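Thread: "does anyone have the structure for this chain?"

Original post by V.I.:
We have the sequence but no experimental structure in hand. Need at least a predicted one for the grant figures.
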Amino acid sequence: MAIKAVLLDFNGIVINDEAIHEQLIDELLLEENLRPNPQDIVDCCLGRSDAACLRDLLTLRGRTVSDSYLEKLLDRKATRYQEILRRLERLPLYPGIDDLIYQVRSAQLSLAIVSGARRSEIETVLSLVNWGDYVNLIISADDLPFGVSKPKPDGFTAAINQLNNLSVGLNLQPAECLAIEDSFAGIEAAKRAGVPVLGVAHTYPYQMIHRRATWVIDHLYELNLDWLKPYYGTSGSPSV
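Reply from O.Q.:
Generated one for you, tokens below.
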């Protein structure tokens, strides 16, 4: 059994944009006459979709909103996010992401982004760095039922199914994928989908990630896919 596909998280793995998201979420709360709290971002938002994050933040403050109203807030945030990125002289990409994409392409593996971000946000970043042709598939928050978010495994399951639809004869199985995640919610989602997961300590300390992921590294630039091939080459598969 060999690695056939790499399934990347986006925020926290591809781009270091947590500060931008926190700023925009704070703006939305203030516009709703609600007070932001940095700890709430950690508790409600890391690794989860904006819809799940915002709904929980509003609920914590006694505010119940309809799906349609929440969609308007999400659209406003996504528009502002894209405007901020387009004004930046240089995107805050994580060191090593370009090399990882090179490794994936050199090994002729499928590459999918599995994220709770909006599709427009992901596509904006890929367009700005000219990586659109390198990604075979995007599974975003827009591709799942509204509000469905990691740690549910739906995004990973959808990615595997769609990669199989895109490539006749691929017959991709969860154990033949490598998920790369930085959050507890993302790691749990991958494991629940049966996908071995590499945790990267971009967001949480190494020791905390180590307890949850199949493998762990401090920084993305440390990753060499060749190191993992022996684990996939055994008669079994990596333990998730």
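V.I.: this helps a lot. The mean pLDDT is 94.
O.Q.: and The chain has two domains: 5-16+93-232, 18-87.
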